[in-house]
What does this fold into?
Amino acid sequence: MKYSLERMIETMKRRQLLFFSLILATLAIGVVIGTAINRSVDAARPALSSAANAIAIPAPTQLSSEFSKVAKMVEPTVVNINTESIIKEQSRSRRQPFRGQPFEDPFDFFERFFGGPMEEPGREMRSRALGSGFIVDKSGYILTNFHVVERADKINVRLDSGDEYPAKVIGKDEKTDLAVIKIEAKKELAVAKLGNSDGMTQGDWVLAFGSPFGFEHTVTAGIISATGRNTVGSQFQRFLQTDAAINQGNSGGPLVNMAGEVIGVNTAIITPTGANAGVGFALPSNTAANVYNQLVKSGKVTRGAIGILMQTVDAKVLKSLGAADGKGVVVSKITSPDGPAAKAGLKQGDIIREIDGRRINDSYELSSVVAELPPGKTVNLKYLRDGKEQTTSLVIADRAKLVPEEGGDSSTAEGEEETGRVKLGISVQSLTQQQAREFELRADEGIIITNVQPGGVAEDAGLLRGDVILEVNRTPVRSPQDLRVITAKLKSGTDVVFLVKRMERNGEVRPLYFATTVP
It folds into this structure.
């Protein structure tokens, strides 16, 4: 028994020794494997070097540097314009508020003894405004907008250098919204270079300069969004449209191309909020140069005219009148029998196509081109008559002196209503004496539309109740019977061209062409 007990104790000791030996062996193997893995990782990790290259900042991109170059070139020529206007209120009678009241006016005492009501003298109020401009001559001549200096009693100009000078107005032209002012500087001035705005096309990069909201030395970038915009201002303004930011205070500042040349004068924006909405307009430099030269020379602008009323019509009307390509401007009326157009042989319905080799696409373009021509200049003109090209020459007249001669004898005529519903969808009648007088016609010239059928041919063409039809397809219409004869010959698919007189809301009577196709 004793022997067995000792043997069991010995066996347990051996097993414990074996167990601890296994643990030590396992730990040793782990250390070896860990050391091997560590060495492998260290071998894969790149060695640190004190010779690493520093990151270099590259030169600005070419596009960015070009903008900067243009800005540095143009900025010294841009000026800030501060104006002050004195607004005088009319003097007011002090007893005016009491008239018609049941209480006696306390100032009646003065009226009874001094012969009239006492009056409060009108107060003076000062209004200040900001704008921009740019120097175009070393003598101190500056181009800006008419509306910037329109009512200014005092004008102060601050240069890019910070120097300030009073300015005087040399000349203003409301029709193009341009003005020329002048400062007497005591140093040589930087001068902006004007470019040719006719060379600008949609997508060209431009920069706009000015002082929006009074923040001077501001430059914004954009592109030419469109050219020849003529629905914003007067008939003498064909704007360059840009998305370069233009805001209040930018007016009169330059719009320049990437050569640093001024190709426009920032003039207007369209916005629902009063701030930039990406739709800005600049008057082309070619127009600005023409106006500037005249204002500096004489203080006023003289414009050319040829003595016609003209109308831009759609391609359908033009094709019906003989212009196969649908291009040109229709002469809707010869306004002066002694004017250039009449002397050159032009007639109502002719389609003007070119002036001195310049293609004419719409009435705004024709008006602008003619207006910029000096009175007395002889030009060559191409036009279509009955589809045949004609050429003539005429001498440009002074617009201010070319007064249209209108009117004619009127006679009494009462006509019964005739309908043209079968073909045209209108009701018409002869002109009364009063109607003829209002439309400056004889009573046997034209018929008046008394009703327009919805969805009819006439409505589709654009005719309105109250229009006076003068011609249909170049055939004079003097009575409802004439219209009935003409419409009887019309067939489905036939183009119909109307010449009508329409009275506008302002009372002006204008001849207009309309066209459609008989369904």
User: Anything to note?
Assistant: The longest strand covers residues 124-135. Residues 304-401 form a domain with the Pdz3 Domain fold (CATH 2.30.42.10). The chain is about 25% helix and 35% strand.
